[in-house]
Amino acid sequence: MARGFNKAILMGNLARDPEVRYTTSKQAVAKLTVAVGRQWKNREGEVQDQADFIPVVVWGVQAENCERYLRKGSPVLVEGRIQVRSYEAGTGERRWVTEVVAQGVTFLGSRRDGGETYSPEGEQAPPSRGGSLREKGFEDDYVRDISELDDVKDEGEDADIPF
């Protein structure tokens, strides 16, 4: 049989808080639901919106990090594989489940969004020193547009370009 290729990449927001459980061997497993939105135009030209809610399974330390840092609405990027499995329900009937088994989960939110930053040592990362100067109260010290400069040349004059 030929070797196949099974890769899934999802980018969306969590539809609910991660649900973490532990196996009998004490390995963490998290269940996530990623809402992925899409748009299209119908025959009348009206824009239609729809969201697909895709189940994702995350194992190990990554599952614990998802529980620690992600909440409903958190933006994530999930890379993994699609898995189809079956089980027997309590009523005796066979049920089928299709889900993405995550090999990597990237947290896309920022601390500004209310999210936390992950650091490998398990500690909170230091606060970011970046950000907009305007957000820090310096908006009047910097021009917003070149037209705000006092010594702007008239449109008819050639500008000296150093290259």
Q: What is this structure's SSE topology?
A:
Elements: E1 8-14, E2 19-22, E3 28-41, E4 47-59, H1 61-69, E5 75-88, E6 94-107
Parallel strand pairs: 4-6
Antiparallel strand pairs: 1-3, 1-5, 2-3, 3-4, 5-6
Word description of this protein:
With 163 residues, the protein is mostly beta strands. It has a domain at 8-39 and 48-116: OB fold (Dihydrolipoamide Acetyltransferase, E2P) (Beta Barrel). The chain is 6% helix and 40% strand. A 5-stranded mixed beta barrel has the order 1-3-4-6-5. The longest helix is centred in the middle third of the chain and has 9 residues, at 61-69. It is globular and about 65 Å long. The N and C termini lie far apart (60 Å). Mean pLDDT is 80; it is low at 115-130 and 141-146.
